[in-house]
Amino acid sequence: MILLFHPRATRPRNCRLPLAVLALAAVLEGREEYEIVDGNLEEKPVEALLKLIDAHPVQLLGVSTMPGPQMVSAMEVSREIRKLRPHVKIVWGGYFPSIYPDAALNARYVDFIVRGQGEDTLLELIDALRGNRPLDSIRGLSYKDAFGLHRSNAERPMRGPDSFPWSPFHRLPVERYLRPSFFGKRTAVHHASIGCPFNCSFCGVHAAYGRDEKMESPERTVAILKHLIDQYGADSVQFYDMNFFLREDHARKLCDLMAPLKLRWWCEGRVDIMSRYSDETMAAIAGAGCAMIFFGAESGSDWALEEMQKGITTEQTLTMAKRTRKFGIIPEFSFVVGNPKDPERDTRETLRFIRRIKRINPDSEIIVQHYTPTPQKGSMYGDVDDKISFPDSPAGWATKRWMDFTLRIDTSAPWLKSTTKELIDNFELVVASRWPTVQDIRAPKWSRILLKTLSSWRYTLQVYSYPVELQWANSFIKLRKPKRESL
């Protein structure tokens, strides 16, 4: 038997379909005996895994691992399984081992890691464990040899979603994942593509998946969504693609096919691509139920955007603030503030830029984060590599300092002065209080009124220092933080 484990990443009330392990389950379906254990639903995942291990001859435990809380859960559960059932081989896959392969392999409880897309690599690893092929023939695999040395095989070219079977939804209690959200009462999630063709210097996606994006055909996307509607009552969906609108012709066809489904939905897009879309396509997107689009605006400084290799301009961001307002779509603009080249200038210019966005489109949701670099293959970003020494093990990444870094709570960036960091944090608090996110469907009306009242004068007069009254109010109101759920 093969076990697929999705470590806990959020509270049960916020859990969504574990798309990563469902993708792996799809290629196992009908050819291998397997079980899925989701730590977001299981209160005691170690006990659930042990019960399966003791009842079946388990050959491999596959663990899907994102940085942050999920990595900590993966570490704790894997370590316990290795201690209690040492004969079970453990493989980590996903974003964390793909960008931190040596750190993952340094853990004694990790035997293999899968870098990038994992479906084919998993099948070939199972074949190798049965003695049918050598480990060094498996693309995308890293492992420890007989001497404990790390070995990394060649990269595996990505295949598009249409190359693989549908997710076997029947293997999970789907109704427990369709949670209420701003978009509907029963919100599903879906990946309609994999990868990203862009090369933003602070991002680790291209390090994990290369610079390519493979899109699912519009017909298959709509068929899967219709299945979720008909079988499980989904009324809304969040698309987890890095770039949902990569091509206008594809976007137009997909939206034309989605319109009859009457779903409300959220996705991610790029301002440079969508600023070139025709009004007819924008109207089709809105007509298909698109309620909100996340844009990585990143900076209010064109020089900083060029340093990041972002490939967009501030003018394109302003264009999308105008166009989304025209078509009744809420834009969600994310900024990574404090560029290492000149963090003080970047901060000043970006805060002014955010105020411009709010004048153009007051409904814009604003996400403010510290500039947080990710290790890349080769040079990451200027001389940042020389300024940050990243942890060399999962245990190192699990410490408070590096959890704060991963979650962009406090990067402890050596180039960011404490006064600049404080300005960024205070500004974020003032803006979030002046315009409380519409995505928190549990917040009572009075809480929004209180936050708006307390913050209005500060935003108007641009007084951001010592916002003690807002800190006090937010300490007990505890509005949903979109940036925490966007990571």
TrEMBL record:
<dbReference type="InterPro" id="IPR058240">
    <property type="entry name" value="rSAM_sf"/>
</dbReference>
<dbReference type="InterPro" id="IPR051198">
    <property type="entry name" value="BchE-like"/>
</dbReference>
<keyword id="KW-0479">Metal-binding</keyword>
<keyword id="KW-0411">Iron-sulfur</keyword>
<dbReference type="GO" id="GO:0005829">
    <property type="term" value="C:cytosol"/>
</dbReference>
<dbReference type="GO" id="GO:0046872">
    <property type="term" value="F:metal ion binding"/>
</dbReference>
<keyword id="KW-0408">Iron</keyword>
<dbReference type="Pfam" id="PF02310">
    <property type="entry name" value="B12-binding"/>
</dbReference>
<dbReference type="InterPro" id="IPR034466">
    <property type="entry name" value="Methyltransferase_Class_B"/>
</dbReference>
<keyword id="KW-0949">S-adenosyl-L-methionine</keyword>
<dbReference type="InterPro" id="IPR023404">
    <property type="entry name" value="rSAM_horseshoe"/>
</dbReference>
<dbReference type="InterPro" id="IPR006638">
    <property type="entry name" value="Elp3/MiaA/NifB-like_rSAM"/>
</dbReference>
<keyword id="KW-0808">Transferase</keyword>
<dbReference type="InterPro" id="IPR006158">
    <property type="entry name" value="Cobalamin-bd"/>
</dbReference>
<dbReference type="InterPro" id="IPR007197">
    <property type="entry name" value="rSAM"/>
</dbReference>
<feature type="domain" description="Radical SAM core">
    <location>
        <begin position="182"/>
        <end position="412"/>
    </location>
</feature>
<dbReference type="InterPro" id="IPR036724">
    <property type="entry name" value="Cobalamin-bd_sf"/>
</dbReference>
<dbReference type="GO" id="GO:0051539">
    <property type="term" value="F:4 iron, 4 sulfur cluster binding"/>
</dbReference>
<dbReference type="GO" id="GO:0003824">
    <property type="term" value="F:catalytic activity"/>
</dbReference>
<protein>
    <submittedName>
        <fullName>Radical SAM superfamily enzyme YgiQ (UPF0313 family)</fullName>
    </submittedName>
</protein>
<dbReference type="GO" id="GO:0031419">
    <property type="term" value="F:cobalamin binding"/>
</dbReference>
<feature type="domain" description="B12-binding">
    <location>
        <begin position="1"/>
        <end position="136"/>
    </location>
</feature>
<keyword id="KW-0489">Methyltransferase</keyword>
<dbReference type="Pfam" id="PF04055">
    <property type="entry name" value="Radical_SAM"/>
</dbReference>
